[in-house]
Specification:
- The complex is a heterodimer of chains A (395) and B (421).
- With 395 residues, chain A is α/β, with parallel strands linked by helices.
- Chain A is 34% helix and 18% strand.
- Chain A is built from 16 helices and 16 strands.
- In chain A, helix 10 (226-235) links the parallel strand 11 (219-224) and strand 12 (247-252).
- In chain A, helix 10 (226-235) packs across helix 11 (255-268).
- Chain B has a domain at 31-238: Aldolase class I (TIM Barrel).
- Chain B has 15 helices and 11 strands.
- In chain B, helix 5 (166-179) packs across helix 6 (181-187), helix 11 crosses helix 14 (390-406) and helix 11 (262-274) packs across helix 15 (410-417).
- Classes of the chains: A alpha/beta (395), B alpha/beta (421).
- Chains A and B meet through strand 7, helix 5, helix 14 and helix 15 of A and strand 7, helix 12, helix 14 and helix 15 of B.
- Strand 7 (98-99) of chain A pairs parallel with strand 7 (278-279) of chain B.
């Protein structure tokens, strides 16, 4: 007698060649298999066919196919489906994201400037100035030395043109604490969601400026490179005591740096801490501490919506633009610029949206494209791009 | 699920201003005069709730005044990139009976920089098409012709003398088709009112066969029926879904109608709101919609879809609601009076009345019930006829899913191909 297999509406079936992963985003039940049985391959394709509404008919021949039925049984046991009589009125809605006003439609029908601007959530601005030279800005907000610098009025004009009234966040990355633009920016942006981020080097300086920023209601943050962490740890230094940072971000490149960072937390005196792994040619550290194992990926508790997000956009970059001291605007500072600070902001955003440069860069390239776990992994970020390692690096 | 969606949002003047900035359609009731006496006319003796018909004509200056008012808003709030589009539509009565107004407004709009694309549109009974077809074609009007099918199907649409208007309308439409074939192909459509002398299948086939067009089919307006005319209305009324059900080729008809089929339209709404797989835009995907706050009922924000200016200069959010719900006025000095705060307060007061029913309603997420159509909305305790308890919602959801089960191809088509605004 004919039977019908029904996949639950929260279930995904991913097949890459012989590798199959069936994953229930609600229960986290899953079946991973390597198959050579043609019927199993056909089954996977059928339940992924939207018009089949997550069902496949199991006929008499199927029911005699031991390998196939063992696979079906494993799905049922893992909570990834059920078997009913063939004529049962059962089906479910395939888990596939449909974004109605999507990039294709925007390209076809045009995109409204105001609607486009609303997508901009955060602008990070490097006003420029003297600072110790480094490349950390490629992974974290961290100041660097530049010959060019932006005028305060140029910055404020850009912010004014970027503002959709949607409470856009702003991050200023300050190279010099004696920067005369600080009081101007602080006063002009009073009451808006602004964070001023320093390195320890740029934090030490004009304490009055820090006071004023704080008094104007702005958030103060400090980011410490592995080198900064080592200095604090060895020298017993502290940040200026009168003004405390609201946030301290510690860039971690080894277990030793992690231990040091934990030790100096009181000396930094921040209200909140964040520890972020960074690439520093430290493959061993990444392999041991950062890269994900299959078990970690599977236990990451991804909901159906999170999987949809992974399939559609990149939360590491979505909604953000970075302006460099030379006025170039980036969605990802490790890739080509989108344009200049003087251009129409909505056009810069549309350029980004219509590419898959950063905001919509999903895990569909390289090794990941052939992996059944690709949509469970977190989206690709800066450390991954610089290191050339994927989230699991084939583990 | 029922308690996880908050319908405690209320309108602000800003919401209404936003709607005006993005106004999709400005509709003029250019006259309340008509050269037909259709038996089911919403301004006829079967209905109440509209201003008295006095064969009036909307003064040109009032039309210009509202255009100036909107132009001022659009000037202040221009956004730059995509050129927005607004339809300027002429409605009646029979709009072609006030041609001087239409000619003057078309000219005025064309000369004024409204910072948007303007598309002129008209709904007509077709009786005067032969006289004005050149003007309509030259100005690329979107023309919606009212035709209820073949001669018998059309027989409620009678002249003042009581004769069927079909022969003349048919002749005029054919002439337009022959004289301006490209314009006809691009800009002419048909609206059919369903009643006891026609049916969905025959009307759809007739309009397709005669004019190569898919007719929009609407049911008779079932609100504001006079008490003494209810029996007459009931005899005339035909339900669209039931008519489709009785079609000889039901499946073929459902496919041909697509969104014109109420089951398909219901399924679209259900899938969009309840599948968990549909997102209006990228923000909707990123943001947890459970935190959203909705307004009670499915009522459009005033001017969210259109603005209707009556022949008396009254401003109403939609021509489909009773004229007693006017929210503004163009006075005799041609001054536009629209108090956005007062409009928001008025609508919010009506929403307050149904808040508790809405809170307990299982269909609130996909509600399409218009406030102004709720029975007794003017009384202290209106009863929403769209309200659904758990059992009713389960039946409704079951109906949608049963329809999907019969038409599985619709899943991808509805989720992917239908653009929502």
């Amino acid at each position: 007698m004919e039977q019908k297999f029904v996949l639950p509406s929260d279930c995904f079936v991913w097949r890459k060649g012989k590798d199959i992963l069936v994953y229930n985003a609600r229960t986290k039940g899953h079946v991973e298999a390597e198959v050579s049985d043609g019927r199993i391959v056909e089954f996977c394709d059928k339940v992924n066919d939207l018009s089949k509404l997550n069902t496949d008919i199991l006929d008499d021949a199927d029911q005699k196919n031991e390998a196939f039925m063992a696979f079906i049984d494993s799905l049922v046991a893992a909570g990834c489906g059920r078997v009913c009589p063939g004529d049962a009125w059962v089906f479910s809605l395939p888990a596939r994201p449909f974004v109605n006003h999507n990039v294709d439609r925007m390209q076809k029908e045009g995109a409204d400037a105001a609607e486009t601007l609303k997508m901009l959530e955060t602008v990070t601005i490097y006003p420029g100035g003297k600072h110790k030279q480094n490349d950390w800005y490629k992974q974290q907000v961290y100041p660097f030395s530049s010959k060019e610098s932006l005028k305060a009025e140029t910055i404020l004009d850009f912010i004014d043109r970027s503002d959709s009234g949607n409470a856009m966040g702003m991050i200023f990355v300050i190279a010099e604490s004696n920067d005369g633009r600080l009081p101007v920016l602080s006063k002009a942006l009073k009451g808006k969601p602004v964070r001023f981020t320093f390195s320890p080097e740029s934090w030490w300086g004009n304490v009055q400026y820090l006071h004023n920023l704080s008094e104007d209601g702005h958030e103060l943050a400090v980011t410490l490179s592995p080198c900064d962490i080592a200095k604090f740890s060895n020298g017993g230094a502290t940040l200026a005591g009168e003004v405390r940072p609201d946030l301290a971000t510690f860039m971690i490149d080894s277990l030793e740096t992690m231990e040091s960072a934990e030790k100096i937390v009181p000396a930094i005196g921040a209200k909140r801490q964040d520890f972020v792994p960074v690439w520093n040619d430290n493959k061993e550290f990444f392999e041991e501490q950062v890269l994900l194992s299959k078990e970690e990926i599977l236990s990451a508790c991804e909901t159906k919506r999170n999987v949809f997000i992974h399939q559609t956009l990149n939360v590491n970059y979505w909604g953000t633009l970075t302006v460099m001291p030379d006025g170039k605007v980036y969605a990802d500072v490790n890739r080509a610029e989108l344009g200049s600070i003087h251009e129409d902001v909505h056009k810069l955003i549309q350029k980004e949206l219509f590419s898959q440069n950063a905001w919509r860069r999903v895990r569909d390239g390289g090794k990941c494209a052939g992996c059944v776990f690709q949509w469970l992994c977190p989206p690709p970020g800066a450390a991954e791009a610089l290191s050339g390692l994927s989230a699991c690096n084939g583990r | 699920m029922v308690n996880s969606i908050l319908n405690d949002r209320r309108l602000s003047p800003g919401d209404i201003e936003h709607a005006l900035i993005n106004l999709q359609q400005l509709v003029f009731e250019v006259t309340d005069a008509c050269n037909l006496r259709c038996k089911y006319c919403a301004y006829g003796d079967m209905y109440f709730g509209y201003d008295k018909r006095e064969d009036s004509f909307l003064p040109i200056e009032k039309g210009k005044a509202i255009i100036d008012y909107l132009a001022d808003i659009w000037e202040k709030h221009t956004t730059g990139a995509r050129t927005p589009m607004t339809y300027v539509s002429f409605y009646g009565g029979e709009p072609l009976m006030n041609m001087p107004f239409i000619v003057a407004i078309v000219d005025y709009v064309k000369k004024k920089n409204l910072r948007r694309k303007i598309q002129f549109a008209m709904t007509t009974n077709g009786m005067l098409l032969d006289k004005y077809e050149d003007f309509l074609a030259e100005n690329n009007f979107n023309v919606l012709i009212s035709m209820d099918g073949d001669e018998y199907g059309h027989s409620y649409r009678v002249t003042k003398a009581g004769t069927n208007s079909h022969p003349r309308v048919y002749k005029n439409v054919k002439h337009l088709q022959e004289k301006y074939p490209e314009f006809f192909k691009e800009h002419v459509n048909f609206n059919t009112v369903l009643h006891n002398r026609n049916d969905v299948e025959s009307v759809f086939d007739y309009i397709m066969k005669e004019f190569g067009k898919e007719a929009q089919i609407t049911e008779l307006n079932n609100s504001n029926i006079r008490e003494d005319k209810k029996a007459e209305f009931d005899a005339m009324y035909k339900n669209k879904a039931e008519s489709i059900e009785k079609a000889t080729d039901k499946e073929g008809l459902v496919n041909r109608l697509f969104m014109g089929d109420s089951n398909t339209a219901d399924l679209l709404l259900f899938l969009h709101q309840h599948s968990g797989n549909f997102f209006k835009d990228y923000s909707d995907l990123l943001f947890n919609p459970q935190k959203n706050h909705f307004c009670p009922t499915g009522t459009c924000i005033p001017f969210g879809k259109k603005m209707f200016v009556t022949v008396n200069g009254k401003i109403i959010p939609c021509e489909r609601i009773s004229q007693k719900y006017g929210v503004g006025q163009i006075d005799d000095q041609n001054q536009v009076h629209l108090d956005l705060e007062e409009i928001a307060n008025k609508v919010n007061a009506l929403m307050d009345k149904v808040q508790s029913q809405c809170s307990a309603c299982f269909k609130k997420k996909s509600c399409i019930q218009c406030l102004y159509y709720i029975d007794g909305i003017d009384t202290p305790k209106p009863v929403c006829q769209g309200h659904m308890n758990k059992k009713m919602f389960e039946d409704y959801a079951g109906g949608c899913m049963a329809f999907l089960y019969e038409h599985p191809d619709l899943y991808q088509k509805l989720m992917n191909d239908v653009a929502v605004s």
